TrEMBL record:
It comes from Acetonema longum DSM 6540. One of its GO terms (molecular function) is metal ion binding. PANTHER family: ANAEROBIC DIMETHYL SULFOXIDE REDUCTASE CHAIN B-RELATED (PTHR43177:SF5), PROTEIN NRFC (PTHR43177). This is Putative oxidoreductase iron-sulfur subunit. Keywords: 4Fe-4S, Electron transport, Iron, Iron-sulfur, Metal-binding, Repeat, Transport. Pfam families: Fer4, Fer4_11. Residues 48-77, 124-153 form the 4Fe-4S ferredoxin-type domain. InterPro entries: 4Fe4S_Fe-S-bd (IPR017896), 4Fe4S_Fe_S_CS (IPR017900), ET_IronSulfur_Cluster-Binding (IPR050954), TAT_signal (IPR006311).
Amino acid sequence: MFKKFDSRISRRDALKLGVLVTAALGMGLPLSLLTKSAVAQDLGTEQLAFLFDQKKCIGCKLCESACRSANQEARDEQVKWRRVLDNGGDEGEGHFLSISCNHCADPACLTVCPVTAYTKRQDGIVVHNAEKCVGCGYCMYACPYHAPQLSKKTKRVTKCHFCYSRQDQGQQPACVEACPKKALTYGKLSELKKAPGGVATLKGLPSPTITNPSWVIIPKE
Ligand code: SF4
Ligand code: SF4
Ligand code: SF4
């Protein structure tokens, strides 16, 4: 069980989000929009995914810091696009989990967003458009992985985009590139699923049936 992972949003955050929804409505957002869901594009069969090998991770958090360095928006103090969680063990000995947005096959964020700020690319990457975002927080409620996070600075949500610009230029995602132990890799989900011992969740994490996340975890016994 990961002590720092709770898929439920706290009461305090819920109250804050209530204020934000009111603010969004105050900005003149039509009520009809609040009930309209975005429709996912045709995805094809090339869904990209992360593979996290818990056996190899030493908890150094270089993936976390690489994400911050590579992405201007991820330098906001209130947000952390990639997080390394632990179960209390020492560096090199504990059970760690490096987690970001899972670019789910059924992205709850995209489904609930009233202003279609999310799109899903043909390669399955779920992209958030901050220009469209009104900061209502619905996606923060909906995502079981706490991937969309509110920037207090911009009053809009922000999240991992799988370094699609880097990928489009033939580079690896920054977090993957930075991992010294190759504990974090990426590729086509259909290929990664063939990894021996790979699973889609761990004890204490949400059920994969909620959003069909695009990740494979190789658990450390
Ligand atoms: S992990 Fe959350 S934010 Fe990412 S695609 Fe899935 S539901 Fe959306
Ligand atoms: S991206 Fe999230 S916070 Fe922004 S408008 Fe959509 S649901 Fe609301
Ligand atoms: S893929 Fe890119 S944006 Fe996403 S967590 Fe890794 S470094 Fe950050």
